[in-house]
């Protein structure tokens, strides 16, 4: 099979140009090959970076700089300091799939005249068991949940699935990688928010001083809290949700 028998890869190659930023990866065309590195290493000499093979890229994505597991590969915490070369477009497709699994297929699907996107309501209406309660949030609460969970500080996928009264994301705000439906992390976060409301653990508002403290916590780097550990008071998505409840002067 040749590279151009893959329509997604063919379309991607056609619009690649001299260079392209794909989430946190900078792709530069070099003749018939492609050089990949972290976008924050754009100005570094290749010799100063650790050269890794295409086969090693999946392992690179598993942990952060601090060694914490990365359950969400679209999180903006990809390790830097590396350099990889794809000798042809097929290898480039393999490399991107190891860095961002399924991203090229979703990118291609999003280019269709009628992209296969869903909505918060459609998606949660299909849930059963303990996730059935994710249908409970009203539209304003569903928008708050989505803003908190899908913030660019936590995920670089541009959300194309819809929530009433909340605009979809743009590539400039996030990346070229689309998000076509809510992920498992969003679903679990929505379930937790409903439980907090039912148990009286979610305040109706927070004071300006509390909002300031929340901003400070969110700006701290190197959090060791697992992404899905929503019970932790230090969980960034939980802090982002609470920040939205701030009272206004």
Walk me through the structure.
This protein has 249 residues and is of the alpha/beta class. The protein folds into two domains: 3-110, Gyrase A, domain 2 (2-Layer Sandwich), CATH 3.30.1360; 120-243, no CATH class. 33% of the residues lie in helices and 11% in strands. It is built from nine helices and seven strands. The protein has helices spanning 7-14, 57-60, 89-99, 103-110, 120-125, 139-149, 184-198, 208-219, 236-243; strands at residues 19-22, 25-30, 33-38, 50-51, 82-86, 158-159, 178-179. The strands form two sheets. Strands 1-2-3-5-4 form a five-stranded mixed β-sheet. A hairpin with a 2-residue loop joins strand 2 (25-30) and strand 3 (33-38). Helix 8 (208-219) packs antiparallel against helix 9 (236-243). The longest helix has 15 residues, at 184-198. The protein starts with 6 loop residues before the first helix and ends in a 6-residue tail after the last helix. The mean pLDDT is 93.
């Amino acid at each position: 099979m040749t590279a151009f028998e893959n329509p997604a890869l063919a379309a991607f190659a056609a619009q690649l140009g001299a260079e392209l930023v794909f989430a946190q990866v900078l792709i530069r065309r070099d003749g018939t090959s492609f050089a990949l590195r972290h976008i924050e290493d754009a100005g570094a000499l290749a010799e100063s970076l650790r050269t890794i093979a295409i086969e090693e890229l999946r392992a690179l994505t598993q942990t952060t700089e601090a060694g914490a597991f990365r359950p969400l590969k679209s999180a903006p915490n990809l390790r830097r300091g590396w350099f990889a070369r794809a000798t042809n477009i097929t290898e480039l497709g393999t490399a991107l799939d190891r860095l961002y699994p399924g991203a090229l297929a979703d990118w291609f699907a999003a280019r269709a005249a009628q992209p296969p996107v869903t909505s918060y309501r459609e998606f949660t209406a299909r849930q059963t068991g303990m996730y059935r309660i994710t249908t409970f949030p009203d539209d304003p609460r569903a928008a708050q949940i989505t803003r908190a969970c899908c913030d660019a500080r936590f995920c670089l996928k541009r959300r194309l699935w819809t929530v009433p009264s909340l605009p979809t994301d743009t590539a400039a705000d996030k990346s070229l990688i689309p998000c076509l439906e809510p992920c498992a992390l969003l679903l679990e976060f929505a379930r937790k928010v409903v439980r907090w409301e039912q148990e009286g653990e979610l305040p109706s508002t927070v004071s300006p001083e509390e909002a300031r403290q929340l901003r400070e916590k969110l700006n701290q780097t190197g959090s060791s809290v697992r992404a899905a550990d929503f019970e932790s008071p230090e969980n960034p998505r939980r802090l982002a949700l609470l920040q939205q409840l701030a009272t206004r002067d």
